[in-house]
Design goal:
411 residues, mainly alpha, 16 helices, 2 strands
């Protein structure tokens, strides 16, 4: 790599780093390839370690009968505490780099004036200066990339949790429907064939039997409706203004339809298998299109979490800039010179300030309310952590400034 130019070295390092991250993501995905739930038998427990962690927390909060939304809040806070060393590492590197950049500004400006026309020489001298002042560009990128990996790992866990809840809800409704239907047939017709099986086809052969069967189905669907909206079930699914935390905080219906639960439409859900559209619509007939905001229960949420996620993400990046930036007022010419001296890395960091909030908004809008709540809580705790870090940094700078001899500072 010694014979390569600075630009090529940097590109090669970035490519290697991206390849490493992609390999990590592929490995994590390969460990959890089976994201479907077969509802023909008992619903299997989630296999993703993040989903298992959420279930453990959920069971410890009110025996799993409390809103899953509060489970998400607790899960997020615990995860942020676990990852706090990574946050501290990133902020310390950022602060150290910022101090180094302040020291290097005059020299970088001088290099810009001296080698402005010779980009290769400029980059070589710039790298030498970075090395001398221990300015770490890769050290800044690595924690961010690790954060991205954690983000997608957590996303996979939420994806499986949503599918698991859909499977649990449908299986409970299916059992309730069949139990009610069987009891009604047994009461009304008894054992038609004497084989202990209450065959629907045998009952529906006559005109009266068909009428009775339709009445039985309606009562069974009502039993499903009552069970689905029983307090212990609605408490788990609802959270504040969101009717079903496992559905997006948007215009989606609170009760997912067949195409949603089987992964044919919508986002971020594990697919249910072992089910047909006719069977699903029969069992869920009375609850589909209910329970949401507005006419026909069309809206599960009010778009509050996606909007808050974008706003908090912008605020978080702004606080990082304020915590690291120079508080002195600068002219446009000074800012322009600093931009040119800092190079493309600073421009990339600024671009990320806009990319992240947009990405948060997209995920918050299109995916489950549970994941949107995770992002919101994560951003909120990140802001609290950043404010604390900024305060500590300010106190450290103030303490060091008091200990500096004024005569030495003038030299």
């Amino acid at each position: 790599m010694a014979a390569l130019s600075f630009e090529r070295k940097r590109k090669l390092q970035i490519y290697l780093l991206v390849t490493l991250v992609l390999l990590c993501l592929v490995m994590l995905t390969a460990c959890n390839r089976d994201t479907s739930y077969n509802v023909e038998g008992d619903v299997s427990q989630p296999t993703h370690f993040m989903a298992k962690f959420m279930l453990t927390i959920n069971k410890s909060i009110g025996g799993g009968a409390e809103s899953f939304g509060w489970t998400v809040v607790v899960f997020t806070i615990i995860l942020r505490l676990i990852l706090s060393p990574l946050d501290i590492w990133q902020k310390v590197i950022s602060r150290r780099n910022n101090k180094a950049m302040e020291r290097m500004k005059p020299q970088l400006e001088a290099l810009q004036e001296k080698y402005g026309d010779d980009k290769q020489r400029m980059q070589q001298e710039q790298m030498a200066l970075y090395k001398k002042e221990k300015y770490s560009m890769m050290g800044m990128c690595l924690p961010t990339i690790i954060s991205f990996v954690v983000f997608f790992v957590v996303f996979a866990g939420f994806r499986q949790m949503v599918g698991y809840q859909f499977a649990q809800d449908y299986k409970d409704c299916y059992n309730t429907f069949n139990s009610s239907l069987s009891q009604q047939i047994e009461t009304g017709y008894g054992d038609v064939n004497g084989d202990g099986v209450f065959n629907v086809d045998d009952i529906a052969k006559t005109e009266q039997g068909a009428k009775d069967y339709n009445a039985y189905v309606e009562k069974a669907q009502q039993a499903v409706y009552d069970a689905y909206y029983a307090k212990q079930n609605t408490d788990v699914r609802s959270w504040l203004w969101i009717k079903n935390i496992f559905v997006g905080d948007n215009w989606s219906q609170a009760v997912p339809n067949f195409t949603t639960v089987t992964g044919q439409s919508g986002f971020a859900t594990s697919r249910l298998s072992g089910i047909t559209v006719d069977e699903y619509n029969l069992v869920m007939g009375k609850v589909l299109g209910t329970g949401g905001w507005g006419k026909g229960g069309k809206w599960n949420g009010l778009l509050i979490l996606p909007v808050l996620s974008i706003a908090l993400s912008f605020l978080s990046t702004k606080l990082v800039t304020v915590g690291q930036g120079d508080k002195k007022k600068k002219s446009k010419e000074e800012k322009k010179k600093e931009k040119e001296a800092a190079g493309a890395q600073q421009n990339s960091m600024k671009a990320m300030q806009y990319v992240m909030p947009i990405m948060m908004g997209v995920f918050g809008l299109l995916y489950s309310g549970a994941f949107a709540l995770y992002m919101f809580t994560s951003s909120l705790t990140a802001i609290a952590f950043q404010l604390t870090f900024n305060l500590v940094g300010w106190l450290v700078d103030k303490s060091r400034a008091k200990g500096v001899d004024p005569n030495i500072a003038k030299r």
